[in-house]
Amino acid sequence: MKTIIWFGVVLGALAAAGKVFIAEVGMKKALECGNRKTITDVQWNHGSEQICKVDVKTGRSIKGKSNILERSRIIQDKNLQIRPVKEMDAGRFTCIADGATYEHTLIVVSVSVNPSSDLSTGAEASLECRVTESDQKSTVKWEKPGGLFENSPKVQLSPVEASHGGPWQCHVTNGAENFSKTLMISVKEADPKLTLPVPNHGNTNIPKPSEDDCSSRCKDSGSTNHQPPSGGMTLLGLIWWVWVAVGVGSLVVIILIIVVIVMMRRIRRRKRKLLKMRDAKLPPRTKKYCQCERQTAAAQPQLGRRREKPSAQPLRPLLME
């Protein structure tokens, strides 16, 4: 009988035992709340702050004051999903389901390369696998492209070599939980640069140059400094034909400006002449009066005595034969 009781106690302890979750910054992560299939109410806490409390039967939820509240939600009636994950989310999470308490731990990992994943030989770069957790129990290591491991969260590449190109994997282990993230690093050959010899001031056995050597070098340097380029003479760093092109262009612009001014003046003069000619051709304006054509009345007959017809002359006697 005691054996059965102890066995039940051990199973209950294992069921309520905490679990470790590893998440990457910017991704989403779901935290499981126990192994029970049916739950009536569930409550999630982050540290000492309450995130939310949900009554599964009625669907009523009570919001807490944790800063994770706006980025979290309850899924499958009991599990807590956080999206996106931030470094401040790392720590202890407590799930209370039907009176049973489950303690969980969230570890947040951030993998980065500085300045970028595209590098050049001879440059400097750093790869970092930063782990944020409440208890420093995780082990971090980098796997190089050749298969070798670097047991450090940060790897400094100084200088960058061609062999550094390829996949770099960050491995985080905490108990039975493992996390890995791969970064692809590409390395290209740097542009060749002229390097000047470094003078050795400590070595006193170097022979000093003779006066003849100095005079010849000075002559050579003087001749090379004053030698014009293959294009001809230069002025203020420009070849002579460039200055000629600039002068010709300036002259053309000045001529165009003069032509435009002359044409404008001619147009104005023509306008004035046309206005004067039009004013001279117009006749003087006179006042116009109404001249209506009226019919004249017929002459009225004169009243009074009528003119008598002249009396006939008396007949003369015929001459006798």
Could you describe the 3D structure shown?
By secondary structure, this protein is α+β, with helices and mostly antiparallel strands. Among the domains are: 17-108, Sandwich (Immunoglobulin-like), CATH 2.60.40; 110-188, Immunoglobulins (Immunoglobulin-like). The chain has 3 helices and 18 strands. It has helices spanning 2-16, 211-226, 240-281; strands at residues 19-24, 29-31, 41-46, 49-55, 61-63, 72-75, 79-82, 91-97, 100-114, 118-120, 125-132, 139-143, 149-150, 154-157, 166-174, 177-188, 234-235, 238-239. Strands 1, 3, 4, 5, 8, 9, 11 and 14 form an 8-stranded mixed sheet that branches. The termini are far apart. The relative contact order is 0.08. Mean pLDDT is 79; it is low at 1-15 and 218-230.
Proportion of residues in extended strands: 25-35%
CATH topology annotation of the domain at 17-108: Immunoglobulin-like
Along the chain, the helix and strand elements come as HEEEEEEEEEEEEEEEEHEEH
Helical percent range? 10-25%
Which shape, going by the Cα principal axes?
elongated
